[in-house]
Amino acid sequence: MSNLIAWIIRAIPFGTIIMFGSMGEITTEKSGNLNLGVPGIMYLGGFAGFASSYFYEKNAADPKGWICVLLALTAAIAASMLGGLIFSFLTITLRANQNVTGLALTTFGMGVANFFGVFILNGASYTAAPLAYASFSKKIPFLSTKLGIISKTVFPYGFLVYAAIIIAIVLHYILNKTRVGLNLRAVGENPGTADAAGINVTKYKYLATCIGAGLSGIGGLYYVLDYNQGIWATTGQIEALGWLAVALVIFTTWKPLNAIWGAYLFGMLYWLYQFLPSILGIKVASYITDLIQMVPYVVTIVVLIVVSFRKKKENQPPESLGLSYFREER
């Protein structure tokens, strides 16, 4: 039982990172834009959030935790939305190839974050923002201590874990129950028809891409200031987690509610290599461990194959996904 609890406690924070990334990409892809720059955007969000809180802690006479949180969130969302705006300008206004632009944005985001990160590290391999970490990882009073096993498994996390679930529910409601969501899905399915119906296609694509980038950036912020204990280092996992978030979008068939359980399932599968031997009471060779770490990606491929064969409309990506819209051709 103790191994199972430890497994869950590891999986939920891990899943939260990719949940933010996948919700951002779902929002973007619902507009018909395919942004493969998610890893770079998460890098930008993580670095901007860390840098703002780090310099505040370093220079303020009496730094406050809530100001750290506010600064970090604002900086992370602003930086990642700027990345989304760059992508939008290149692919919507200039109609550049979305696949190439997204990959370039990943390289750009990683490069910018690591370049400026060198000045913060100042020759060290890592540095930390302890007040920001303490603030982001602060547990909910009472619920984290008084409910036995529920407190141990459900409430030992920082507020962004629960915010991710709430955002997924709100996003599901907006996409499926509001006129804005209906218009956005119409733009993603057939922008020509949406344009003829009076919907501003460019506005919806820009907004969805920038808001989606902002959500993805929060995932990078959560990784650095909570999951990674407020540490910015020369090595990190953000890029790999960004690609896993993109895979999660396919796994969840572009549904925000599926991103909740899907992200936690990916977290369980990712940490399977560490807990499976102890749960089964066996020793596992190192190459088996490497194979087990591939499971989330293999599961995504299997789901993609199954979905393509079933051909149900609700499980398919938006019809215009990855295609530039030329108004003159409608």
UniProtKB/TrEMBL annotation:
Its main location: membrane. It is found in: Cell membrane. The chain crosses the membrane at residues 7-24, 36-56, 68-92, 154-175, 231-251, 263-285, 291-309. Keywords: Cell membrane, Membrane, Transmembrane, Transmembrane helix. GO terms for molecular function: transmembrane transporter activity. It comes from the Bacteria. Pfam families: BPD_transp_2 (PF02653). One of its GO terms (cellular component) is plasma membrane. The keyword Acetylation does not apply. It is a multi-pass membrane protein. InterPro entries: ABC_transp_permease (IPR001851). This is ABC transporter permease. It comes from Blautia segnis.
